[in-house]
Amino acid sequence: MNARDRLAWLRPLLLAGLVAAAAFIPAQRALTRGDLPTTCVEPNRHMTMYAVELPREDGKPRLAYGLTPDTASIPGPTIKMIEGDCLAITVVNTVSRDVLRELRDDPLLGSRDPDMPLGVSLHVHGVKYTQSSDGTFATNSWIPPDESRTYVWFAAPKIVAAGRVISQGTAGYWWYHDHVVGTDHGTGGAASGLFGAVIVRRAGDVTPDRTYVVAMGPDATLNLKRFPETDCPAEPSLEDASNSCYVAVQGERVEFAVIGFGDDFHTFHLHGHNWADTRTGMLASQLDDSRLVDNKTVGPADTFGFQIVAGEEVGPGSWMLHCHVQAHSDRGMVTFFHVFTPAGILLNSSAPVELHEHFGRP
Amino acid sequence: MNARDRLAWLRPLLLAGLVAAAAFIPAQRALTRGDLPTTCVEPNRHMTMYAVELPREDGKPRLAYGLTPDTASIPGPTIKMIEGDCLAITVVNTVSRDVLRELRDDPLLGSRDPDMPLGVSLHVHGVKYTQSSDGTFATNSWIPPDESRTYVWFAAPKIVAAGRVISQGTAGYWWYHDHVVGTDHGTGGAASGLFGAVIVRRAGDVTPDRTYVVAMGPDATLNLKRFPETDCPAEPSLEDASNSCYVAVQGERVEFAVIGFGDDFHTFHLHGHNWADTRTGMLASQLDDSRLVDNKTVGPADTFGFQIVAGEEVGPGSWMLHCHVQAHSDRGMVTFFHVFTPAGILLNSSAPVELHEHFGRP
Amino acid sequence: MNARDRLAWLRPLLLAGLVAAAAFIPAQRALTRGDLPTTCVEPNRHMTMYAVELPREDGKPRLAYGLTPDTASIPGPTIKMIEGDCLAITVVNTVSRDVLRELRDDPLLGSRDPDMPLGVSLHVHGVKYTQSSDGTFATNSWIPPDESRTYVWFAAPKIVAAGRVISQGTAGYWWYHDHVVGTDHGTGGAASGLFGAVIVRRAGDVTPDRTYVVAMGPDATLNLKRFPETDCPAEPSLEDASNSCYVAVQGERVEFAVIGFGDDFHTFHLHGHNWADTRTGMLASQLDDSRLVDNKTVGPADTFGFQIVAGEEVGPGSWMLHCHVQAHSDRGMVTFFHVFTPAGILLNSSAPVELHEHFGRP
User: B143 and B274, same structural domain?
Assistant: First the structure.
């Protein structure tokens, strides 16, 4: 039973709760000039995200962002922008005060400071925002339970004048996350699932056929899961595509957005494919002699991404994708990138991959 | 009471000690050709640095380099060079044999090898030096107590011939540190404060309005401090600028030089600002498609730097600067970059930021 | 007594064993089209490698790859390719079932899963290979004891069309390693010595005079050794050159290939020399403003390499090469790069470097 199935019974309750909550959510103040980055006179895009509770796992709270309460997921929705976009995101906090208190008082990850307020927030990397969209206690830009707040992100463009780069822009692979749950740094928020990818493209960038997110987190997890939960169901089809089922057809252009979070350092490795250690994962020109890599150190809040052509030169099959810290991969920080033949067949799919149980690793 | 204030009463003693020490410091041998990098026929710059004891903190010795004994600081003076500079630095060791022995015999950080000599040294990264300026026991280029030694650093220039780069030069963000206190690798020296930044520019490089150093060290510290000691006094003014008080006026060009040291890996994150992962933090040309980052892994002795325009697009305010390893930020490996309005006002400065106490993190 | 000397008495036994083993090795199936990367119609190079047991160290098994059974070494042979090469490597597994079982059942590094098969494999980074050359259990591309298997690696070339980079190629510094000993990720294989460097050059690349490999591994080791085993014998000569004796003549072009493996993160530092953080360690053009470094974070399976001119600007002498994680260098994760004068003399070689014993570090 996957996460969405497990959630099914909750859907009516959540929707009812949402309607109830909406009735009580105080009217937000309107955005003022000080809420907008300098060049963003007015947001050209708007969206709403909900911070919600998912069912607990192993007794621990699971929180997530979603475009609707019942589609919230870990990681949250991947937000794609183009340099020049100014995006207003209204975040509705439906997480209960009790769960927020539990995370604040967590003996391992919480501040245990009774004076710390309870709420969630939205903090983003890479793009531009004023103090009122910082998502921190220090800037008072957080959201109490049953309230909402609008954050504005500006994907400032690269500016070139007289052949010189005046401003380097914001195109890249970034992430957003809570910054106030558990501690002043959102330690409990991200650890519970409140994060997602942001991808900012520059005009003229190649666009991929598929985009997947790989968040390398605490306790040897990918997207807070360990193998086999990181991987597709048995005999996967292309319709199973998700951030827990990386599938593609040979020849498709596939993008991976990689995020580190928590306390641990990881190394991201993909079998059979490599990429350039640049903004896009591709060499920008014939003169670009950036290093090619197939393995990359990812520290907490480091983000990068790349596009590859699925199965280029190497053909179809199930290609391992794992953290290369041995203790982490041995504990299950592993999944597969399943490349189907052009005819849509996954070789050996009738004998789905099983990894051997590991008893020895702590 | 800041470090300088706490030192005030020591000043007369230190000066007296210095005069006394100077009287006993043996005459140094003159530099010979073998002490000079190949292209440095004669140093064009000279300076003197003192290795001194500061008052203990939490019972632990604090050592520092200074241009004078009473201005020694952690980090030490930032040394700026231009490619082509050849700099002779005479280091005077005023640190007592007792403290050096204590650090050598430290059960956690010391070698505890009674045959290890006692002294300090100066070792540098990135620029060129011969074996006699290596600052190690192996090359016998260290300084016993009450003695001095002259080290020569050459900022070798980039050399291009017929369109090809023949020698890549030494421009970059580097650091200097002791290499003999406590162990053969200076583990006790750096941990006690004997380090500083070196910034080498290339002719034509943009110069910043302000330069700050952020050394990410052991025990979740920035410049060996934890919040709030990492930050300005309440109601900071631009006059408080220091490596424990990062201030700027919106629109100023501000440079951060980041240093890792000790045993731990960190990730450097600055809110609201980003930079290119290049030599200068800026894109070198329109063809340069290096990754933009606002978060970067920093291992021990890794160094990097960048320039940003304070508050560009994001406006004034107090922007968090922290290690993004959650356990580190939660322990206080945090400070703020305070961007004043063009009128010189720090918004909310009457309500200085307080972070919540964290009881739960080890 | 170095490793080769210690092995001398084993040689006749090993050769006898090899002859015996060869007699029993089942005939391999022929390569089919599905075993070859798309553009490799037929391998243009062939080699044989043996996976062998070396004498135990500290009671622990030591395994190694070799071009012959009696020349197997840690790291294994450095495999150099040029973009366009398609290399078929037949690996003969001479490692006993008993040792493989011991590593599988190791309480710290093994899976302890009795259902896990026993064998070795060859997995490579950076170059192209089909599923049948993946070297994993999941793809069934491993080698039981006394059997052999042919792996095919294709150094796919960079392809440029109409000024755009269509495919970025595979030139770079990579490594190969076992992926099935101990756990599904080869944790016990690499930890025992089953790894080596792969260097892929692009047509037109500068070639070095000497190539050395530095593998930064578990337990504060370089190539699974600690100082002084990492370094040359006393009074080294140029004939002692090996991966445990880095020597060069001033002015020679020397290449270091650096590999991380195991669980730990390291920082590679070389005294007196620096390089560019690019594919080759050199700046590709006048426009290339990549960062210069002399210290670099290396996570598990991260690889990089660079070329330097030995003693450029800094002259001859013994230059420290060490992990800059202080706890690691203090434990002996150190060696020296010995640069001889053009006359072939190593200064101070009559007084070989000794580092002080460190008692205090765990």
Answer: no
Task: Kindly state whether C285 is in contact with chain A, defined as any CB-CB distance less than 8 angstroms.
Answer: yes
In a domain, B356, yes or no: no
Q: Chain C partners of B170 at a C-beta cutoff of 8 Å? A: 274, 292
Amino acid at C216: M
State whether residue C350 sits within 8 Å of chain B by CB. Answer: no
Q: What is the pLDDT of residues A38-65, one digit of tens each?
A: 999 999 999 999 999 999 999 999 999 9
For chain B, the helix, strand and coil percentages under 3-state DSSP, each to the nearest 5:
15, 35, 50
pLDDT digits (tens, 9 = 90+) for C152-181: 999 999 999 998 999 999 999 999 999 999
Shortest CA distance from B270: residue in chain A: A125
ipTM: 0.92
The residues near A75 (Cβ < 8 Å, ≥ 6 apart) are: A193, A195, A196, A197, A213, A215, A223, A243, A259
Question: Of C256, C70, C262, C229, which is closest to residue C173 (Cα–Cα)?
Answer: C256
**In the numeric block, which tokens belong to residue C169?**
């190629």
Whether residue A336 sits in one domain with residue A291: yes
Please, are residues A190 and A303 in contact by the beta-carbon 8 Å criterion? no
Whole-angstrom Cα distance, residue B94 to residue B54? 11
pLDDT digits (tens, 9 = 90+) for C268-291: 999 999 999 999 999 999 889 999
User: pTM of the predicted model, to two decimals?
Assistant: 0.93
Q: Give the Cα separation of B225 and B57 in Å (integer).
A: 10
Nearest CB partner across the interface for A315, out of C131, C156, C171: C131
Residue C53, strand partner residues: C63
| Pair of tokens at residue A337 | 């990138």
Q: Do B171 and B302 lie in a common domain?
A: no
Tokens 């690349």, residue? Answer: C205
Nearest to A258 by CA among B304, B297, C183, C185: B297
| Average pLDDT of span B155-160 | 97
Give CA–CA dist B190/B194, Å, rounded.
5
Q: Classify residue B87: in a domain, yes or no.
A: yes
Inter-chain touch C267–B187, beta carbons under 8 Å: no
d(CA C209, CA C64): 26
Query: Does the beta carbon of C128 lie under 8 angstroms from any beta carbon of chain A?
Result: yes
Asked whether the predicted pLDDT for residue B260 surpasses 70, the reply is yes
Band of residue B25 on the pLDDT scale cut at 50, 70, 90: low
The full 3-state SS of B211-254, as one line of letters, equals EEEEEEECCCEECCECCCCCCCCCCCCHHHCECCEEEEECCCEE
Q: Which of C132, C167, C201 is the last residue of a domain?
A: C201
